[in-house]
Specification:
Helix content is about 40%, strand content about 20%. It has about 180 residues and is of the alpha/beta class. Bound molecules: flavin mononucleotide (FMN). Flavin mononucleotide binds near residues 12 and 83.
């Protein structure tokens, strides 16, 4: 058991929580929802924050960053879960460029973990956003193969998460813990 690392997460439909808990099990540390973050984080060698991608935004990051820093977190490591496959490297790079400043990209190890979509556990606003995305895509004329794949994928729930995807993140954390 390491008391040197802590994993904090936001999760609406469970994918991020599942990855956070797998990681905690693998590393022998604690995983908690961000809302239950300890008041003092200064004793940890690294604090991990995990959340979903939400319309291209690393959901809750700005708020989490402020909170974690105000509680004394020294080293931050982040991971995002999403519906894109890990192979969408270009789009994943763009997401990080749009969510982390160049200095943050340099200082904060960041990982993307493919997860999926779960309509059953999704809230009303999110369902409406997905409905809108499906409608917008159906209206788009010259669809790229990626658009076609996206349109097909979002018709129903799917789970492309796998415990094996935590390996690079776990390795990074072992080096810090
Ligand atoms: C409204 C909405 C927007 C989303 N936008 C993205 C996105 O831009 N990129 C992506 O890869 N996944 C996107 N997703 C999928 C979620 O990021 C994915 O389901 C995530 O793993 C959910 O995490 P959670 O189960 O911990 O809440 C979106 C999902 C919803 C409902």
């Amino acid at each position: 058991m390491t008391n040197n690392l802590i994993i904090l997460y936001n999760s609406k439909t469970g994918f991020t929580r599942k990855y956070a808990e797998l990681l905690a099990l693998e590393l022998g540390c604690t995983a908690l929802p961000l809302s239950r973050a300890p008041a003092d984080l200064s004793g940890y060698a690294a604090v991990v924050f995990g959340s979903r991608l939400h319309a291209g935004i690393f959901d809750g990051w700005k708020k989490a960053q402020k909170l974690l820093q105000s509680r004394g977190a020294k080293r931050l490591v982040v991971f995002a879960t999403g519906a894109m496959p890990n192979e969408a490297e270009e789009r994943i790079r763009t997401v990080w460029e749009q969510n982390l400043t160049p200095a943050e990209q340099e200082a904060i190890p960041h990982f993307y973990l493919q997860a999926g979509l779960c309509y059953e556990k999704m809230g009303g606003v999110d369902r409406a956003m997905m409905k809108f995305a499906a409608w917008a895509m159906s209206r788009k004329k010259a669809k790229t193969p990626e658009d076609e794949a996206f349109q097909g994928a979002i018709r129903q729930s799917y789970d492309i998460s796998d415990p094996k995807y935590i390996a690079p993140l776990a390795e990074c954390l072992r080096g810090l813990g």
